[in-house]
Design brief:
With about 160 residues, the chain is of the alpha/beta class. About 50% of the residues lie in helices and about 10% in strands. The radius of gyration is 15 Å and the shape is globular. About 35% of the residues are buried.
């Protein structure tokens, strides 16, 4: 595995859950999750603490898996990130759905502070409803992709 130069993927809770629980379960794709762990150790794949918390209590599924690799996968909240998170919430006050520690604004705030970063989410744009992560990313000129697109950029392949 080679490091993806100047690319950092900031993964939303919905993307972790979708990948681990539904699309790429570790009992079938064990090697894939080894690769993801390796990318996390290299700080290529990361997630905000708030997204980690949204995956569950750490006792099963992706929540338990993430807590095993937690030191390398969880992003730190710097004063600049906190400032940018507040900017995101000010511009999109309904983004958090009233959830005090919602991960959504933190995804964008971290992306604004990490050069070459891309937000990974399975959410689709709202097209006029309550804003979703892709809408906020677009407003702040942050690239967003889904899990499969991230795997393609990481050149994760199962056949030649």
């Amino acid at each position: 595995m080679s490091r993806v130069k100047s690319q950092s993927f900031i993964v939303d809770a919905d993307a972790w859950i979708s990948a681990f629980e539904h699309r790429y379960p570790p009992d079938v794709f064990a090697r894939l999750w080894d690769l993801i762990r390796d990318y996390a150790i290299q700080e290529v794949i990361r997630t905000p603490r708030q997204a980690l918390n949204e995956t569950g209590d750490g006792k099963k599924g992706v929540s338990a898996w993430l807590r095993i690799v937690q030191p390398s996968v969880v992003l730190r909240e710097t004063p600049r990130v906190v400032t940018d998170m507040n900017r995101v919430v000010a511009k999109f006050p309904t983004l958090t759905r009233g959830i005090e520690d919602s991960a959504d604004p933190w995804l964008v705030a971290h992306a604004l502070n990490i050069t070459g970063s891309v937000v990974v989410t399975e959410e689709k744009p709202s097209h006029g409803g309550r804003p979703k992560v892709p809408d906020v990313c677009d407003a702040f000129d942050v690239e967003h992709i889904n899990v499969l697109q991230m795997f393609r950029r990481l050149t994760v392949k199962w056949v030649k």
